[in-house]
Write a structure and sequence with these properties.
This protein is α/β, with parallel strands linked by helices. The protein has helices at about 35, 45-65, 85-100, 110-115, 160-170, 180-185, 210-225, 230-260, 275-285, 295-300, 305-315, and strands spanning about 1-5, 10-20, 25-30, 75-80, 105-110, 130-135, 140-145, 150-155, 265, 290. Helix 4 (about 110-115) packs across helix 11, helix 5 (about 160-170) crosses helix 6 (about 180-185) and helix 5 packs antiparallel against helix 8.
């Protein structure tokens, strides 16, 4: 089955063509970093406008890479949510128009399920059940994938997403946007033990995350310190990164132990972070657990992961009507 995937939930316009839901024939990601960088974060209105400008060329290019035409498609999968509503609508409308014109089956995909499916696009895919730590700019949650398309949410962030915290702290430190890669780069020069930052503990014992406290702590520190030397900025970045990594890894390991699940998928934009990848690999390795981490270009937003998830849903007989609408707060479980 040849499936076209379309992803426009945030600030990347992406299209991909997959064969059998696993073989990537063509994949194009048009980043909008240049549009949003001056603002230190995604500006929703500008994101929708850029999606509109590039969606058709991006789809064309993905088809050309795959050596396919629209008539070759057996299905179209599109991110339905969660995400920015104006951005989502551009992808959903494009997918619906193509599905209608070409009579192709249509499927709406949850963006977070897409991130999980990134782990199925390379060499050795995970068996079920597994834990999935989805850490991105908009979302931070831990899921138990019990069976194909069957998820339970174990924990989620109570406030900011991990990637959002990276972006905000980078802005505080004057490191530009997107913040994750900038912090990771500067943190290499810094001492991760330089600053003691709070690791949030849920008083109700829930395996939830919280990143607003650490962000506030960094903000207070920066304000008190006044002008920061480059070495000081590196220390703050390294300490922040180490603390976020510690929080993410600790909750994931605890969930694995309490659920008796020995397989972990790490995915989402923040999963591109080397410190996080290495820390989780260390903890899983010690316990003999299997860890699955997609390569970096599949961790950040892309349409191959959407086509993969959509393929499995289409193959299971799922069909979305042409009344399919964007759902900005669509839940996975
Ligand atoms: O999954 P993604 O591309 O988009 C969303 O669905 O949100 O994730 C983007 C987020 C941004 O917040 C970005 O700063 C973060 O992922 N990110 C990183 C790294 N690369 C991207 N965070 C930490 N370290 C990185 N290397
Ligand atoms: Zn994402």
């Amino acid at each position: 089955m040849i499936v076209l995937g379309i992803e426009t939930s945030c600030d990347e316009t992406a299209a991909a063509v997959l064969d059998g839901g696993r073989k990537v024939l063509g994949s194009v990601v048009a980043s909008q970093d240049d549009v949003h960088a001056p603002y230190g974060g995604v500006v929703p209105e500008l994101a929708s406008r850029r999606h509109l400008e590039v969606i058709v060329p991006v789809i064309r290019q993905a088809l050309a890479e795959a050596g396919m035409t629209l008539r070759d498609l057996d299905g179209i999968a599109v991110t339905q949510g969660p995400g920015l509503v104006g951005s989502l609508l551009v992808g959903v409308q494009a997918a619906k128009a193509l599905a209608w014109v070409h009579g192709a089956p249509l499927c709406g995909v949850n963006h977070l399920e897409g991130h999980i499916y990134a782990a199925f696009l390379e060499g050795n895919p995970p068996d079920y059940p597994f834990l999935a730590l989805v850490v991105s700019g908009g979302h931070t949650a831990l899921y138990l994938a019990r069976e194909p398309r069957g998820y339970a949410r174990i924990g989620r962030t109570r406030d900011d997403a991990a990637g959002e915290a990276f972006d905000k702290v980078a802005k505080l430190l004057g490191l530009g946007y997107p913040g994750g890669p900038a912090i990771e780069r500067i943190a290499r020069e810094g001492n991760p033990a330089a600053l003691r930052l709070p690791t949030a503990q849920m008083t109700d014992g829930a395996p939830d995350f919280s990143f607003s406290g650490i962000k506030t702590a960094v903000s207070l520190h920066v304000r008190r310190a006044g002008a920061l030397s480059p070495a000081h900025v590196a220390d703050v970045a390294a300490s922040f990164q180490a603390t976020v990594v510690k929080m993410l890894v600790r909750k994931t390991v605890r969930a694995g132990l309490s659920l008796g699940v020995r397989r972990v998928v790490l995915t989402g934009g923040v999963a591109a972070n080397t410190a996080l990848r290495e820390a989780l690999a260390g903890e899983c390795g010690e316990r003999g657990w299997e860890l699955f981490v997609p390569s970096r270009r599949l961790c950040t937003d892309n349409a191959a992961m959407i086509a993969a998830a959509g393929h499995d849903r289409l193959e299971a007989g799922e069909r979305a009507p042409l009344t399919l609408n964007a759902v900005p707060d669509l839940a996975l479980a």
